Structure to design on (80 residues):
């Protein structure tokens, strides 16, 4: 994947957590992290107590940007 800022090739990796990984709307940190409490939230990796959660992510260390492409669901390790 090309970085949309500098057009260099981004490095493939992952973001892993022992909790659900979700994008939540708004600008303030939430008391509850589960996406189903918030309208418009997007679950990027569903929680699995056995496998934790992880999502494929691309990084550009020069621009200090990370991209998660969740368009096809394959970015979620727990959906594979
Ligand atoms: Zn870049």
């Amino acid at each position: 994947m090309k970085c949309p800022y500098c057009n260099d090739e981004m490095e493939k990796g992952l973001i892993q957590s022992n909790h659900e990984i979700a994008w939540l709307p708004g600008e303030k940190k939430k008391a509850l992290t589960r996406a189903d409490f918030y309208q418009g939230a997007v679950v990027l990796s569903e929680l699995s107590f056995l496998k934790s959660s992880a999502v494929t992510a691309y990084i550009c260390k020069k621009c200090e940007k990370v991209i998660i492409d969740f368009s096809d669901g394959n970015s979620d390790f727990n959906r594979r």
